[in-house]
Amino acid sequence: MTAAVRPLAIIGPTGTGKSQLALDVAERLGPLGAEIVNADAMQLYRGMDIGTAKLPAAARRGIPHHQLDVLDVTQTATVARYQRAAAADIEAILAAGAVPIIVGGSMLYIQSLLDDWSFPATDPRVRARWERRLAEVGVGELHAELARRDPAAAAVILPTDARRTVRALEVIELTGRPFAASAPRIGAPRWDTVIIGLDCDTTLLDERLARRTDAMFEQGLVAEVTGLLGRGLRDGVTAARALGYAQVIAALDAGGGDEQLRQAREQTYAGTRRYVRRQRSWFRRDHRVRWLDAGACSPPRLVDAALDAWRHVS
Fold first, then answer.
1. What family is reported (predicted)?
2. Which terminus of the chain is more exposed, N or C, with fewer CB under 10 A?
């Protein structure tokens, strides 16, 4: 495969500048043509713009973007749906002779795409049984059950993540194997994709995340959430749990006063920092990632380094 049709993935923790690097790389590629494929689960949702730091259309520099604004907030985002849709986008971009640039930080979404994850079958009856159990005992007890059956899965699924806990227990029951056994092995990435990781010093990133969180609230996150509640956000299985959105919903439910919103802002920042730790732990285990320091390099140098890695694959 020539470099002209080899995809580039730009991954890494939230707040490191992945979207801007992707735009800069796409512009530098010029006549080759490049199109961006989103790999941020919450940017799939229409109307979830401020809280996901989604690039407005006017800021996309005329570069085609895929897998943005494809779901209503009442729909459930799943890795399997994303994998199918994003893979189709990439195949079409490659067929046109352009360069797909995959950008995001949603760990399972990226790995499912690059490692061609085959998803275990689902059984509505088994799923319904575990969902009834969830309603009876709560997510904490159900997660404890997962820990007894599959400690490795419980270690990577948050104790508050009811949907993934139910899915893991369903897969274990259907396959008779640990949930992790269905995960893809890390090998040669699909389409010979070159994977760039963007990160920076923790102190610097914490400062960026604080500014980012403040900006979201100042730019109208509360109003955005209020509008989305009128479109059914509260009924959404995945959208309503997104960082920032879940915290604002709780604040509004508690009265929506200054103190409640201040706490929502603090909780959003703290939750984002925790998420960054999980992202780093996940991505750092992938030996294929070529890491760049977003804090030590100027934007032009980051573009140079990313394109050098893309052009000169060992």
1. Belongs to the IPP transferase family.
2. C
